[in-house]
Amino acid sequence: MYELISKWQPVILAFLAPVFTVATFFKIKKSRRGYKETIADRCLSSEREYNGLVTEEGHIYDRQLKYEKRLSETSSLYEITKEMSASLHFDDIFKILAEYLQKSFLFKRVALILVGMDETSSGEVVYETLGIQDSASKAKGVFPKLEIAGRPLDENDKKIYELLKNDIRRIQITRTEWLKSPYAQYLPEDAHTFMAVPMLFEDRLIGILSIVDLSVSDLEKFSILAAQFSLEMRRIILYEKVEQMAITDGLTKAFAKRHIMERLGEEFERSIRHDFSLAFLMVDIDHFKNYNDTYGHLVGDAVLKDIVELLKNNTREVDLVGRFGGEEFCVILPETGKDEARLVAERIREMIENHSFKAYDESTNVQVSIGVAVYPEDAGDVNEIIENSDKALYAAKNGGRNKVCVCNG
Predict the structure, then answer these.
(1) How many domains does one find in the chain?
(2) Are 293 and 192 in the same domain?
(3) What is the maximum span of the chain, computed from C-alpha positions, in angstroms?
(4) Is 392 found in the same domain as 283?
(5) Could you tell me if 125 and 141 are in contact, meaning their C-beta atoms sit under 8 angstroms apart?
(6) pLDDT digits over 96-127, tens only?
(7) Residue 358 maps to a domain
(8) How would DSSP label each residue in 58-127?
(9) How many C-beta atoms surround the C-beta of residue 299 within 10 A?
(10) Domain range for residue 367?
(11) pTM of whole model > 0.90?
């Protein structure tokens, strides 16, 4: 058998060789096809991974831009907060706010409505300080040291204020809620957003900061800014209250003696520097002890307060009224000569004499004596002008009271 296989081996090999060759060919071809498919799959996979990385990188870049924008906004809010915190007056923080709003936002209109108490009428005063139609009038009676230009509210502003006053919370309206909002009818027809942030002090509404047509994406930033501005307003109100207590007489609200002496020194230096006249009036209530003894100290206190009001009402805004002590008051008249000072003093004396003082169901009349001294004719320094006006005052009292006496140098 072995010999037979050996004999026919060449023939068998010759017959099987093509079969093995074809099989091997197909096997190799299949192997190559698989290799190609593997390469293609790997390329496709790599391409997908690359695209995924590119997309992810794009998302990372977008997130980075958002983070950078948020960081920039936070930084700018921090800077404006720091700048406002360094200010001690309303005018300063109003100007800082206005500049920041114009620089940082696109909007149609911003309004800052201030709410204060008018001491003369004991009524509420509403005043708008930032807006399109500014005027040169000042918000006296709202905040004592407010100098920024403003304007009274128009009818639409008043309606918005009344709504906010009765619903003290942050109002935010976008176009989708426009028709449902009671505010929409008082806003521009083409407006798309409205936000109003109330500002409170001791549970009382002191202001409303509102903005029209700010982009929706900026509403949150504006809200943060308004909240910070509200904090700064409260801080300044407290500061001014403390400052006012330190420089004013608690009973009459005239300047305290210490402050009036400081201001007299300042005005004296200014008068010397610019070669201006400066008048000083010393005012004393005649027989004031009799009023206290007859009507009681409560009526006496009411008389003192009324005297200060009369002094303020009969002098200019630049003039200074102070309580020198007891029933004695003084008035500083910058840039005022002797003849004009005499006229002012005489007008004050007549006004007080003709005024009916009423308090606690009591009514009485009061008279005053006034001494006048003027720089440079009567005095060369602060002490001398006080001393000479005091001498003139006692000359008026010795001359029969209810008189004006002017120092003769």
Answers:
(1) 2
(2) no
(3) 171
(4) yes
(5) yes
(6) 887 888 788 888 878 788 776 444 433 444 44
(7) yes
(8) HHHHHHHHHHHHHHHHHHHHHHHHHHHHT--SHHHHHHHHHHHHHHH---SEEEEEEEEEETTTTEEEEE
(9) 20
(10) 257-406
(11) no
